[in-house]
Fold:
Amino acid sequence: MKLRSACRKTIFSGLPQTIWARISSVYIGGGTPSLLSCRQIKTISDFISKKTIKPLKEFTIEANPDDLTEDLLFCLKDTIINRLSVGIQALDENVLKFVHRRSSLETVLYTLDLLFKKWDRILSTDIIAALPNQTEKTFLQGLSTLVEYKMQHISMYSLTIEEETVLGKKYSTGALNYDFDAADSLWLSGKEFLKEKGYAQYEVSNFAQPGYECIHNMAYWELKDYLGCGSGATGTLYGKKSVRFTNTKNISEYINFWNRDDFMNSSELLIPGEREGILPEVEKFEFFMMGLRTLKGVSISDFETRFSEPVKADFLSVMKKWESQKKAYFYKIGGKSYFSLGEEGILFLNEFLREII
Structure:
């Protein structure tokens, strides 16, 4: 009962009308939102539909293949949700077992077939290149299957091995032999395959058919305001004093905050968590770090307007050097000047960022 109360207060607590007027996309993710009941999903969707001033450009919900049923799809189609993101990661039974995915290959294929027949809105998925036990043949076959099932958007990531994970421990002890060069080569093969099938790479790891780029994620890469709702969620508000906040990851503490008796009578209460002011120099660096993840690149004009100053001379020097090396280029569109690393240079984004630090 307390959890339901906290959820209601979280959703229905009043944001200023000026904020609602600016909301253009919603993304329900960061876990397993497909475990929500149909009633809960509709409650969220109906409330957002009533509060937003303008129709949302995009409303996404994430789902695990195991959770998707015909009833759930029917429920989603009765809401304003227009984009479904399904976490698949691999279409190889041996790989799925090795990385301890809940879904079997049979489940994944059943889900893809169900989505193909019953879901008539935007469909997105993710896949990881070079998972252990994966070959180039099985990886490209997996990509081919996703294309056949008419995915409009595919996120393709390289495997990241982190120390504290099961894979990380196996790698550090020598139980897992992993070839990072071969992994990079496999990702590039996947990139070329998707391009041949009509998917444009518009960000480091994201490919879409024309017109199906993820609007919500573009807000992150273009350093636009976003609100994070829920335990552990992060949000950022930009302005003269930009601030980033992360709600407490302690779920009990988060629920207890919303259940406080004085919650509705005070405007001074802050959700427990961390807050940090973003220094201007950090924000300028993030402008390049996030914007150059996209093939569109960064707008020099927008930088000058946002920060009321020209791009630093040492930044420009690095940008011109990369242009001379054919790893980046300047261009103009709509009266604005842009700088992009392009398809080749974007692979060396971290190298570029190290040079401008």
About this structure: The longest strand covers residues 122-129. Confidence is low (pLDDT under 50) at residues 1-12. DSSP finds 16 helices and 13 strands in the chain. Residues 96 and 222 are 34 Å apart (CA to CA).
